[in-house]
Protein: RNA polymerase sigma24 factor
Organism: Rhizocola hellebori
Amino acid sequence: MEDFDAYVVAAWPRLVRSAWLLTGDWHRAEDLVQAVLARAYGRWSRIGADSPDAYLRAMLATTFLTWWRRRWRAEIPSATIAESAGVDEHARAELQQVVRDALLSLPHQQRAVLMLRFHADLTEAATADALGISLGTVKSYTARALAALRQHPSLRSFVLEGAAS
């Protein structure tokens, strides 16, 4: 299982980023990745070395949706503290927060579709396959999610402020 260990070391950052797009929280993202890797360890010989990223991203999305159905979300963070006082870092952190809030405002299924389509770069058919939904559902979730993001007040004001400066 040395190949699994090597893969985990190399893939950890990108898997956590993918999971963060789903959860909106770094700690939950790490928990999600750990749960997926624990399940993948036993299946590693069947996953194969061809495209473990795609397989694991699909596992991330399906595990996230399962967690979402089962879990009551009692904790709601009230604010995020910026990590750096630098001007560029502040703008980056602010943009990250605005995007995070906009993504978290989407229904969890739409968020999962966007993560697989645009972050994992899966085709519509591969996304449908990964989530076990129809191609038409992927298309409608994508269209609705993008329309909602275009209309999200924080994103709109952030983009308009950036265009004005």
About this structure: The first helix runs from residue 2 to 23. The chain has a mean pLDDT of 83. The domain at 2-164 is CATH 1.20.140.160 (Butyryl-CoA Dehydrogenase, subunit A; domain 3).
